[in-house]
Amino acid sequence: MKILRQGKAPWERKYIAPSNEPKKVQLTQQMWSVRRTSPSRVSLLLGTEPLWAAAVGIALGGERLGVLGLLGAVLVLAGTAWGRRRADAAA
């Protein structure tokens, strides 16, 4: 396992060892959710993962979204809303 040196933020200055544990937790939660709701709803929610990643980057990493990032976020939200309305209409 490689040890990586992270960025300039105070919480990133420590050496960290990458692990698969967060991915295992995420996959377990995802499988739990898939069993309890419709496949269309799961696909719509999973389509918003980039927005959650951006939100964490902004909140914890101090990142900033540019115009294209904001446009992308609006398009993802619009597509999710449109898909949800279609799924509700079909049901």
Describe the protein in words.
This protein is mainly alpha-helical and 91 residues long. 67% of the residues lie in helices and 4% in strands. The protein has four helices and two strands, in the order E-E-H-H-H-H. Strands 1-2 form a two-stranded antiparallel ribbon. Helix 2 packs antiparallel against helix 4. The longest helix has 24 residues. The chain is flat. The N and C termini lie far apart (48 Å).
The major pleated sheet works out as: 2 strands, antiparallel
Secondary-structure element order, as H and E?
Answer: EEHHHH
| Strand element count | 2
Order of adjacent strands in the largest pleated sheet = 1-2
Radius of gyration: 17 Å
Cα end-to-end separation:
48 Å
Query: Which segments are poorly predicted (pLDDT under 50) over 5 or more consecutive residues?
Result: none
pLDDT averaged over residues:
78
Q: Tell me the structural class.
A: mainly alpha
| Number of DSSP helical runs | 4
